Amino acid sequence: MIKTVRKAVFPAAGLGTRFLPATKASPKEMLPIVDKPLIQYAVEEAERCNIKEFIMITGKSKRTIEDHFDYAWELEENLKSKGKQAMLEEIRRLAQHQFAYIRQGVPLGLGHAILCSKPFVKEEPFAVILSDDIIDPEDNLLEKMLNIYDKYHATILALERVPKAEIHRYGIIAGEEIKKNVFKITDMVEKPKPSSAPSDIAIIGRYILTPDIFSFLEQTQPGKGGEIQLTDALKSLLNKKPVYGYLFEGKRYDAGDKLGYLKATVEFALKNQAVKDEFREYLLSVIISKLNKES
pLDDT confidence of 291, banded at 50, 70, 90? Predict the structure, then answer.
């Protein structure tokens, strides 16, 4: 029996060292983009695809993630008394879904984080969303990947062409384009040197995985950095079953990087109905002021 994707896993146990000291006591996943934390954008992306079971892989000092997606009686009563119904409904909406929280005791990499979800995922296909990778909602990346899954019923990876100078930061694939932007993957390498990389096509933070992946993760030995690499397990899976990729051509922001985070903040602010007009005027004034000083 073919099963649909009903669950999404959100690895959120990293230390967030690139954003210290802001992330010393507060999770990186709770850094805001305008008025929502990174992790909420990820959850809403899954929600738009009718996924309503969310599995968070957390670690020490991540309790605020749980609190964020829970009911907040005192705050809700305050909003209700002030007649702020729209805001009340907004903060209640996501709390109505099913959330499970699993603590990854030791941060042993993405592969290990996904393996921690096995008791909750069981024998179902599932999505994995990395909240560092912010996708413009208008681009519907996860929805397109799910459509491809419905055709092939196999593992689907999100792909993106990256500049040569950035190849060493990603898992890189080799493969054959079997239809526009859909690849049948033949090989993958975790963070290769540009000179030895099989292509410039990188795996980015969206996956549709079948439950087969768990047995391969259990057999995967620690790789680079002493971590269990998801790419290594996927490469082993590739020897047994087909793996496909969707080449994404929309907008992705690497919010795990300070510059990417700032870009996402600016772009999303320019689309936010409450602030976009005034914010655009402010940006223009900054640019004009800077040009005047330089002239």
Answer: confident
Q: How far is CA 169 from CA 79, 81, 184, 205, in A?
A: 44, 50, 22, 12
Q: Would you state the pLDDT for residue 106? A: 81
Q: What is the pLDDT of residue 236?
A: 92
Do residues 87 and 41 make contact, with C-beta atoms less than 8 angstroms apart?
Answer: no
Query: What pLDDT digit, counting tens, does each position of 195-240 carry?
Result: 889 999 999 999 999 999 999 999 988 876 778 889 999 999 999 9
Contact call for residues 131 and 41 (beta carbons, < 8 A): yes
CB 264 within 8 A of CB 253: yes
| β-pair type (155-161, 32-33) | unpaired
Q: What are phi and psi of 139, to 5 degrees?
A: -90, -15
Detail the DSSP E strand segments found in the chain. 7-11, 32-33, 36-37, 53-58, 98-103, 126-129, 133-135, 155-161, 171-179, 182-190, 201-209, 243-247, 252-254
Q: What is the pLDDT of residue 221?
A: 85
C-beta separation of 182 from 148 below 8 A: yes
In this prediction, residue 1 carries a pLDDT of 55
Contacts of 246 (CB under 8 A, 6+ apart): 141, 144, 145, 148, 156, 157, 158, 159, 181, 182, 183
Rounded CA gap, 72 and 69, in Å?
9
State whether residue 212 is helix, strand or coil. coil
Give all domains of the chain, ordered by start, each with its CATH number. Answer: 7-256 (3.90.550.10), 257-295 (no CATH)
- What's the Cα-to-Cα distance from 273 to each of 86, 216, 219, rounded to whole Å? 14, 46, 49
Contact 209, 243 (CB under 8 A): no
